[in-house]
Amino acid sequence: MKTKPNDSPSQLSLLESEESGVTLASPNPKSSSLENAPDLDNARAEPRPFAGRSQRTIELRRSGPFMELDGQKIPIELSRSRRRTVGMTILEGRIKVTAPNWVPLTEIANILDYKSRWLTNRLKEWQVRQANKLEPEDRWAHGATVQFLGQSCALKLQPHLEDVLWDAKNAALLVPSAGDPNHEQVRDRVHGFMQAQAKDILKERLDALSEKSGRGYSRFSITHARTRWGSCTQDGHIRLNWRLIQFSLAVIDYVVAHELAHLKAMDHSRSFWDEVATILPNYKAGQQGLKGVTFESVS
Questions:
Q1: Which of 18, 24, 11, 41 lies closest to 110 in space, CA to CA?
Q2: Is residue 254 within 8 Å of residue 247, measured between CB atoms?
Q3: Phi, psi of 177 (to 5 degrees)
Q4: Which ranges of the chain would DSSP assign to H, the alpha helix?
Q5: What is the gyration radius of the CA atoms in the chain, in angstroms?
Q6: Please, what sign has the CA dihedral across residues 256, 261, 267, 273?
Q7: Mind listing the pLDDT tens digit for each residue in 225-276?
Q8: Edge to edge, what strands does the sheet with 94-100 contain?
Q9: What is this structure's pTM?
Q10: Where are the alpha helices (DSSP H) in 77-182?
Q11: N or C: which end of the chain has fewer CB within 10 A?
């Protein structure tokens, strides 16, 4: 029987096993989502045996929880939900953790400790991106680059155009610039173009793999989520993030196959991954394309 954790202590300081973890399972899952999982830059709890004690101290407090990574105290943002797994990612320099309502703080701290090396690597990647981050006015200026279908495309502002055009041959996105638009207007025009393309292309890939594999879905929609690439409900409603249009077709097909597989298995068990491989035998190529990618690094 699962009970709601007691989060009442003002502070919980733990020394947990570096090789431990938890198996999280709810009796009747309603939906499953493709978030930044280990292959999508989001750590999740895995069952692990205890193997000694680590020397890392984690403090979870109601005001100002933190974890020490690479000699730095990193804030922890903990939220509860009805999800079945403990998920974590580095977001704006803090550790964002989402956990099921019934998982106690001790187990969450244990998982954070086990994933400390992974979190340290993600933190360093975020810090490097921040150091090299372009200002918005430079990111959306003439000559800046964006990703579209896995291709680096230069932005070319064209005063005579009325709509954004993709010049695949010259790896460029031609953007209307009549009226001397500011960087926000350029960004909105590029995003509008990408979202329209995503609606068509993602639907085409979903239909193609659905028909090829014989896995039918009930509904499809585009999402603007900032925490997941796709999701699938138990009744077959598949949602795909429009930002996937920035990746190659191999990555898009992997996410599509991932969500179609959830029509058979609403978890990430061995049988689920067998289903993914059945739908898309070379799925690991696309899976690799999302490794280390965070929403912060996507335009």
A1: 18
A2: no
A3: -130, 20
A4: 105-114, 116-131, 136-139, 183-213, 249-261, 270-279, 283-289
A5: 21
A6: negative
A7: 888 899 999 999 999 999 999 999 999 999 999 999 999 999 899 999 999 9
A8: 11-15, 57-61, 66-69, 72-81, 94-100, 87-91, 43-44
A9: 0.61
A10: 105-114, 116-131, 136-139
A11: N
